[in-house]
Design a protein that fits this description.
The chain has 14 helices and 13 strands. The chain is an alpha/beta fold. Helix 3 links the parallel strand 1 (54-60) and strand 2 (87-93). The termini are far apart. Residues 28-49 are annotated as: Disordered.
């Protein structure tokens, strides 16, 4: 009994001291971002120690290397913060089907999960339609304003949504195409993408504008899903000198089809991301999807611990980009690669 009273007394004294010093501590944390990061880690650890556990629903749009890496990075960040026992994941894959995305999200909502991670544009759209209450973090989404139909998007979604973007500088992608394939020798560029993905349309429009200013003639070759990809890709390969494929989830899941058509035809591809480039392209401006997912996980920690208000969290972007090339395809197409490019490892 004496021991219990001593513990209770110490706890009361600690609470009293915290109440007296709360104002100055808050000011110090607001001025020091490193202190905020430490506070988040401390709060996460305290929550786990006290038995707090979070359940997070992960809806991945479809299986392919980039999205898989982002999901893994997200999970690793949360496990590092909360421990294996402090977080439970319900990870589901929609296999590229929009209706399945909605079904998955509705299940998360009805279960009252603490947070939803939407990996891919279609997953994000389903999550946004499914709940305005549960915090939603997107990743592997190129342009949030386009994906969510926000006019005059200023970098912050607001409400219950934030996340990370995989958008690489589109002007630099256009410049990359020009570096490898000068307009005098390769004047016709085919823009191959899935019309069901609004972020793909956005990338194609922007890159087309840059290339047109350089003197290229750009033609859209859009496919509705994987069923008509082969037909559309065949047309593009027969009519164009070079093809651009943006960061497109459907294309990423079907690079073998694209490669089997374009490589024998001798038509090179500049890709929007490393997974597509490794499957069917010659060069890309690459980001780490694992790091992108990890950054999303760090955002989730701040939301769950109450350190950050998701409604005011701006979208975060990949900090680094690397010029990479596909050595196999470059060799088969007799393409000379500049010295500042890094080979994609098979």
């Amino acid at each position: 009994m004496k021991k219990a009273l001593s513990i209770l007394t110490a706890a009361c004294m600690a609470l009293s001291l915290a109440a007296c010093s709360g104002g100055s501590d808050s000011s110090s944390q607001a001025a020091d971002t490193s202190s905020e990061a430490s506070a988040a880690t401390s709060e996460a650890s305290e929550g786990t120690a006290s038995g707090t556990s979070y359940t997070i629903g992960i809806c991945q749009q479809q299986p392919h290397e980039a999205l898989d890496s982002a999901t893994q990075g997200f999970k690793d960040a949360l496990v590092e913060a909360f421990g294996e026992d402090g977080v439970t994941f319900d990870e589901q894959n929609a296999q590229g089907d929009a209706n399945t995305c909605s079904t998955i999200i509705n299940g998360f909502v009805s279960s009252g999960y603490d947070l939803i991670m939407a990996n891919g544009t279609t997953a994000l759209q389903a999550a946004a339609a499914g709940t305005s209450e549960i915090p939603i973090l997107g990743t592997s989404v190129t342009e949030y304003g386009v994906a969510l139909g926000i006019d005059g998007f200023d970098g912050t979604v607001g409400g219950n949504i934030s996340g990370t973007s995989d958008l690489a500088p589109l002007d630099q992608q256009a410049a990359m195409l020009s570096e490898f394939f000068p307009v005098a020798e390769y004047p016709n560029v085919g823009m191959l993408y899935c019309s069901a993905e609004p972020n793909s349309e956005y990338q194609v429009e922007q890159v087309s504008n840059y290339l047109t200013e350089m003197g290229y003639t750009c033609t859209d070759y859009s496919f509705s899903d994987s069923n008509d990809l082969s037909t559309i890709a065949t047309s593009a390969a027969s009519e164009c000198d070079v093809i651009y494929v943006p960061t497109d989830n459907t294309a990423a899941s079907n690079t073998e089809i694209i490669n089997n058509i374009c490589l024998p035809a001798g038509v090179p591809i500049i890709a929007g991301e490393e997974g597509i480039c490794g499957g069917c392209g010659v060069a890309t401006l690459s980001i780490s999807y694992y790091d992108l997912g990890y950054a999303t996980g760090e955002m989730a920690v701040k939301v769950l611990t109450g350190e950050a208000d998701i409604s005011t969290m701006p979208i975060e972007y990949a900090p680094n980009f690397t010029k990479k090339y596909n050595p196999t395809n470059c060799e088969q197409l007799n393409i000379t690669v500049p010295d500042d490019y890094v080979a994609i490892e098979g």
